[in-house]
Structures are given as C-alpha cells and as structure tokens.
Amino acid sequence: MRTILLALALAAAATAASAQTLKTLVVAGGCFWCVESDFDKLPGVVETVSGYAGGTVDNPTYEQVTQGGTGHHEAVRITYDADKIDYRQLVDVFWRSIDPTDDGGQFCDRGPSYRTAVFAGDATEAEAAKASRAAAQDVLGQEIVTPVLEAGAFWPAEDYHQNYYKKNPVRYAFYRKSCGRDARLCTLWGDDAFIFGKS
Known about the structure:
Blueprint: H1 2-14, E1 22-29, H2 32-40, E2 45-53, H3 62-67, E3 73-81, H4 87-95, E4 105-106, E5 109-110, E6 116-120, H5 123-140, E7 148-150, E8 154-156, H6 164-167, H7 169-179, H8 181-189
Parallel strand pairs: 6-7
Antiparallel strand pairs: 1-3, 1-6, 2-3, 2-8, 4-5
Helix pairs in contact: 4-5
C-alpha cells in the first residue's frame, strides 16, 4: 500500500500543471467521518462530502438515517482529479480502508446505516468496481460482501458532520481508536491496509 501511495503522489506532482478533469465517486464505508479523513489525504482527491446515499427519503436527517427505515447508508462523495488518480485506483484503496467481509455495519458501528457499498454512476464504473472487488477478494482470501449498487441521489449531511476530524481532532481520534477501525484493518489486510500515515 505504501508503494501505491508513493506512486500516486509522484503522479499527482508530475501532472500538477495539467487541466483538472473532476469526477466523483460515492462510497459507504461505515462512519463517514473516517472515510472523509482517509480520502482527504489521498493524492488527487479534491474534496470529500459526508452525506447519505441509497435510500428512499428525500433530504434525510442524521436522526432519520440512524433510526433506520430510510434505506440510506452513511456515505461520502469523493471529488477527484482524473488526471491524477482514476476511478479504479480509488476503489482499490476503498476496499483496504474498510472491512468488506462485514454486512452488519463497520467496526463498533452496527446497523443498516453503517453498511458498506460502492455506488456506481454508470455501467463502466460498475464494471470497474466489480473487477476491483474481485481482485481485492483474491488478495484477501475471504468473500467480500460489499455490494456495487447503482448510484442515485446523494444528500449532503448536516454541517457539523463535514470535516468532523478537523473540527474536533481529539474527539475524532478517541472515537476512531475506541471503535477499533485501524486495529481491525491491520488484522484483516496486514500491510495492505489503507491507514494514512501508518508506518
């Protein structure tokens, strides 16, 4: 994973002067604070927005989503510069930032709103995501249960959720450690775990 990150950083530096081609990817990886925190640091990522995807209620609130019944996942919309990182590379990293063997939530966060998913915007993205999932499953040696779903409406979450890890660094660090996210990723993926800054 360190080799992948180094290659991405070098590619981003080499193409810094090129015109941006901005695209988006929506993923659900459990707590959206953690997904934002991880992907914000990835070379080529321009912006992350926490929100809700995959449900049936327009403009849902956090309370509605976490209480259940809306069908939404906590999700993150990742805007990236396709001249610096491509869709497949992002999805390859995504598997290694979650526990894709768990269909009941993620880490200490349990329930439908914490399910994982990749929301593909079209048939080409769906094909790339499924190929990435198959490759990751071969590496992992366990069944990946995270689905590739058709993208629908994405609803940004409330302002206090955006960039939570920056606004509340001490609380965020305590939450992430006590929830066991990084420990589980290391157990599951070993050196391939995507934990930015891991030595």
